[in-house]
Write a structure and sequence with these properties.
4-stranded mixed β-sheet; globular; 12-stranded mixed β-sheet; 561 residues; 20% strand
């Protein structure tokens, strides 16, 4: 059996100019980065601005488990399958972070015969977007520390600097650090720390900005610190947002690549959903909607994280109206939710499946609250039995949701034809009918902060109540005093459970959700709510993937999944 990288290395890729030509993109609207990837110019977006939008399809999933779900693989396979049935579809995905690539989770280019290529480029440095975001973020940090060193004209309190450095790698040792050590010439000593780049507010800003002007404004609105008199200091007060925008000028342009079957993929931005808003860029999604009759996009981790933020943050700001949600699961993952250990998931166990399928049911119910119809996609494994498949199909029938068994990992687009047909049927339902899409966010952003948190806790996380630390109470009061309490919220929460406790599998109900802090991301335009023990700088596992990745004497990469 071939590995993902071996499959990708044998792919017959088209020159990216040919992929673009099929979409009606003109040569002057394409900025090639080598032969198989390119940036899409601002002129393309301007030319297409009056073109009607296609139908928007969101791919999300149940809570992730060690058994695997295959959300990105399904997204890619669905795009390939749409081409098989003669539909013009464009897929819009996030870019991978180097942290998971060299850590434990892996890349974000799909798998098997439903991959985006060139796979090595995409999972490594790609077109440099991650590096540009890191540089812009750390430029702001350098300017803050230089301001302290050069006399601190703004009277910044070094104990209340909020903005942290970042790097695109898992490194737990950098979560809490001291800087400015070594005497007067080496800066002002203070406590600091690092985030992973995908959790940076600069990443969120890049993904939510509509154009360069909007990007520069949002960068200027980053809250970086407080003065000794407790008044706020923003990036624009330091005069650095223009230089940050310069570093991000090219990174703001979406990237065009292709699947193994040469269908188009726009890949741009990569915030995690457990610690950030979990969606690819607004610009990429808008281009996909203009270039295709169907735009397929995804949101990170389970629907309680990525899809919720897609609906309540991204769709709210960008004015997007999704037509369909594809909810991805595997029978193995449902059995895991039913209490079966990973090493026993290959054995038939209908009872455990029926016990764990409540997790799928909770996600179906959650998505329906947004007024968007759901299609369930089960990624088939060779160990799935007829009895187990029948149990899932029966459950979906009881929930009145279309069900499709997919084999895109093994068969590419051909393995997703049934899913593509059912998705198109749902997308084509008359919006005026009761069964059609009637999208609306789940809360009014103008509500008080606690009311927004508690709405999500009750309706999406199924909690009974919410508790707040004294630090969270203080932060919320401060945000209200600044007049930023009318923003949507972005919850940082474990991805492994609907709750804030990763050990609570299935569909936990009536527990207490613990909020430990709330942070203002004024540039991004949301409030980050920290729950449980979630970290914004992951660590490496005991045996990181980096130990298996290598290069031979001819420059061929091995061990990359």
């Amino acid at each position: 059996m071939l590995t993902d990288i071996e499959i990708a290395q044998r792919a017959a890729m088209l020159p990216i100019t040919e992929v673009a030509e099929k979409l009606g993109i003109r040569p002057e609207e394409l900025e090639p980065y080598g032969k198989y990837k390119a940036k899409l110019s601002d002129e393309l977006a301007q030319r297409l601005s009056d073109r009607p939008d296609g139908k928007l399809i969101l791919v999300t999933a149940i809570n992730p488990t060690p058994a695997g779900e295959g959300k990105t693989t399904t997204s890619v396979g669905l795009g390939e399958a749409m081409a098989k049935i003669g539909k013009n579809a464009v897929t819009a995905l996030r870019e991978p972070s180097l942290g998971p690539v060299f850590g434990i989770k892996g890349g974000a280019a799909g798998g098997g015969y439903a991959q985006v290529v060139p796979m090595e480029d995409i999972n490594l440095h790609f077109t440099g977007d991650m590096h540009a975001i890191t540089a812009a973020n750390n430029l702001l940090c350098a300017v803050i520390d230089n301001h302290l060193q050069q006399g601190n004209e703004l009277s910044i309190d070094p104990r209340r600097i909020l903005f942290k450095r970042c790097m695109d790698m898992n490194d737990r040792a950098l979560r809490y650090i001291n800087v400015g050590l070594g005497g007067k010439a080496n800066g002002v000593p203070r406590e600091d720390g690092f985030l992973i780049t995908v959790a940076s507010e600069v990443m969120a800003i890049l993904c939510l900005s509509s154009d360069l002007k909007d990007l520069k404004r949002r960068l200027g609105d980053i809250l970086v610190a407080y003065r000794f008199d407790n008044t706020p200091v923003f990036a624009k007060d330091l005069g650095v947002n223009g230089a940050m925008a310069v570093l991000l000028k090219d990174a703001l342009k979406p990237n065009l690549v292709q699947t193994l079957e040469n269908t188009p993929v726009i890949m741009h931005g990569g915030p995690f959903a457990n610690i950030a808003h979990g969606c690819n860029s607004v610009r990429a999604t808008r281009l996909a909607l203009k270039l295709g009759d169907y735009a397929i996009t995804e949101a990170g981790f389970g629907s309680d994280l990525g899809a919720e933020k897609f609906f309540d943050i991204k769709c709210r700001y960008a004015g997007l109206n999704p037509s369909c949600v594809v909810l991805v699961a595997t029978i193995r993952a449902l059995k895991y939710n039913g209490g079966i250990p990973k090493q026993e998931l290959a054995k038939e166990n209908v009872d455990a499946l029926k016990k764990g399928i409540v997790n799928l049911g909770a996600h179906i119910d959650n998505m329906r609250q947004y007024g968007v119809p759901v299609v369930v996609a089960i990624n088939r494994f060779g160990t799935d039995t007829a009895a187990e498949i029948a149990a899932v199909e029966e459950y979906c029938g009881e929930k009145n949701v279309p069900f499709s068994l997919t084999e895109v990992f093994a068969k590419g687009g051909e393995g997703g034809v049934d899913l593509a047909k059912k998705v198109c049927e749902v997308c084509d339902i008359d919006p005026a009918s009761e069964q059609g899409a009637h999208f609306a966010p789940i809360y009014d952003e103008k509500l008080p902060i606690k009311e927004k948190i508690e709405t999500l806790a009750r309706k999406i996380y199924h909690a009974g109540e919410v508790s707040y630390t004294s630090q969270a109470e203080k932060s919320m009061a401060e945000i209200e005093s600044l007049g930023y309490d009318k923003l949507p919220i972005c919850v940082a929460k474990t991805q492994y459970s609907l709750s804030d406790d990763p050990t609570k599998l299935g569909s936990p109900e009536g527990y207490t959700l613990h909020v430990r802090d709330v942070k203002l991301s004024a540039g991004a335009g949301f409030l980050v709510v920290f729950t449980g023990d979630i970290m914004t700088m992951p660590g490496l596992p005991k045996v990181p993937a980096a130990l298996s990745i290598d290069l031979d004497e001819n420059g061929n990469i091995t061990g990359l999944f």
